[in-house]
């Protein structure tokens, strides 16, 4: 049985410098639909090249038919926003994912997901994120990642978090550089992005490296 953490969770930080001071990580709600759709549309060119995709199954079964993914059928159309929110909440209740909306001073500006939450001998999770270009470079995502990492370490009892980034994704590389995550090298053909398998660099941090928390360390570098 997978241990399911408490959900929903709200994480808050008020240390961002103006403009924008209050950062919330909270569950995505059905009422966010219009704001989410507008944000994605406004940032399509900014985000699309980094979007994960699902590859078509390869190989043939014993009858010579194209093999499908075990236990899954390929969807004929994307889920509705309500269905998307429902799926995120289910994953959170199951304990495998913490799917946060990123809100800055009451405005939805992105998402951060803690995924692949694993206990036992690994005690690890992976963090992914996206944010609107209009707030990029203002410390929003570094702060959000630090908040999420501290929640993983201090509330979930995890030992390690990692972030996997395309080598050419300069904005995301700046996030892990600012936070001081350890570069663990290249993973070749690691994730399927926009129709092809792409290399990623892995950056990681363990709880003993930040005994006072990653957010405290990040604040100290900002003079907060």
Straight-line distance between termini = 41 Å
Principal-axes geometry comes out as globular
CATH level 1 class label: Alpha Beta
Percentage of residues in DSSP E strands: 25-35%
Count of DSSP-assigned helices: 6
Question: Main β-sheet, in a few words?
Answer: 8 strands, mixed
Fourth-tier CATH superfamily name: Gcn5-related N-acetyltransferase (GNAT)
Name the poorly predicted regions.
none
The radius of gyration over CA amounts to: 18 Å
- Structural class category: alpha+beta
Query: How many individual domains?
Result: 1
N-to-C series of helices and strands: EEHHHEEEHEHEEH
CATH architecture: 3-Layer(aba) Sandwich
From the 3D structure, determine the CATH topology: Aminopeptidase
The total of beta strands comes to 8
Percent in helix = 25-40%
What's the overall average pLDDT, rounded?
A: 89
Biggest β-sheet: strands ordered side by side in the sheet: 1-2-3-4-5-6-8-7
How does this structure look, described?
With 224 residues, this protein is α+β, with helices and mostly antiparallel strands. The chain has one domain: Aminopeptidase. Helix content is 28%, strand content 29%. It is built from six helices and eight strands. An eight-stranded mixed beta sheet has the order 1-2-3-4-5-6-8-7, with helices on both faces. A hairpin with a 5-residue loop joins strand 4 and strand 5. Helix 4 runs antiparallel to helix 6. The radius of gyration is 18 Å and the shape is globular. The termini are far apart. 26% of the residues are buried.
């Amino acid at each position: 049985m997978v241990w399911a953490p408490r959900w929903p969770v709200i994480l808050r930080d008020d240390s961002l410098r103006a403009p924008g001071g209050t950062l919330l990580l909270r569950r995505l709600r059905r009422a966010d639909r219009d704001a989410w759709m507008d944000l994605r549309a406004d940032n399509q060119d900014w985000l699309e090249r980094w979007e994960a995709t699902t590859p078509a199954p390869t190989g043939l079964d014993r009858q010579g038919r194209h093999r499908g993914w075990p236990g899954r059928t390929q969807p004929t159309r994307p889920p509705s926003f309500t269905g998307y929110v429902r799926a995120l909440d289910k994953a959170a209740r199951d304990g495998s994912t913490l799917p946060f909306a990123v809100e800055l001073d009451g405005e939805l500006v992105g998402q951060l997901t803690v995924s692949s939450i694993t206990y036992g001998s690994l005690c690890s999770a992976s963090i992914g994120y996206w944010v609107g270009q209009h707030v990029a470079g203002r410390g929003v995502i570094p702060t959000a990642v630090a908040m999420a990492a501290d929640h993983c370490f201090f509330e979930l009892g995890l030992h390690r978090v990692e972030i996997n980034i395309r080598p050419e994704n300069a904005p995301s590389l700046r996030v892990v550089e600012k936070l001081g995550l350890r570069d663990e090298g290249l993973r070749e053909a690691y994730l399927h992005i926009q129709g092809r398998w792409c290399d990623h660099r892995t950056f990681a941090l363990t709880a003993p490296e930040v005994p006072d928390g990653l957010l405290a360390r990040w604040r100290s570098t900002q003079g907060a």
